[in-house]
Amino acid sequence: MFHGSMVAIVTPMKADGSIDDDALSRLIEFHIEQGTDAIVSVGTTGESATLSMSEHAQVVQRTINIVAGRVPVIAGSGANNTREAIELAEKAQMAGAAAHLSVVPYYNKPTQNGLKAHFTAIADAVDLPMILYNVPGRTIVDMQPEVSAELARHERIIGIKEAEGSLERTRALIAQCPDDFLIFSGEDPTACESMLAGAHGVISVTANIAPALMHSMCAAARAGRADEARQINSRLAALHRALFIQSSPSPSKWALTEMGLIQPHVRLPILELESHCFDAVRSALEAADVLAVA
Fold first, then answer.
1. What domains appear along the chain, each with residue ranges and CATH number?
2. Set 91, 106, 109, 161: catalytic member
3. pTM value?
């Protein structure tokens, strides 16, 4: 069920900061038409940190309703408060999500044992498949492979989005985790090589902009067609870089605006993409030849 190109979808917003439901519907239909394998709703790219609990639940529910079973929907549920993370996971389950994605707690700087206790408490409390999310560049704490491997033995913890970024980390997880544990890249620049090394897919920011290319690259990599996968990935390389030229998701939202799908609005403390970055993002769009797709 969970494999290939899984988009960490942005949350479209209006100028006043409210959720743009019409744009969300357009985005979801775009992804299904372009072959996206699964949709991650209100992950960190979806600005989960600045949505209220009720907004978070509403966007997840609306996404599930629009998708209507055509692809799996994974609900973001991470928080640096374990009780809040449990509540978000419960809401994801009630909404009908296929799984939930729970990020390493940010700011608190828990120990490795604290991480193990946090994720175990969530998995014990909520009967919904859980995918861990390790992103030390955002959370400061790096969950080590041996902790991930221990958590992988919990019946409800089915996989991990690993954004440490190195192929060595992917290989360590493959070596230490059970064979049926799902390993997803959380870093677009290394996703192709991670899948060629044995990862099951990517939870991707680039897929917001180039879903068909990401789907094709993932399919080739997972099938072991290395030359084909690398050739497609070379077309995406500029996007992988440009979409983090400023704080995510402002570059992605600006790109999607250029494609006519949404407006570029984000919530503070993130700002809309600054004008001196426009040319770099536009060049990356042209390199991937996606401006005409939408």
1. 4-233 (3.20.20.70)
2. 161
3. 0.97
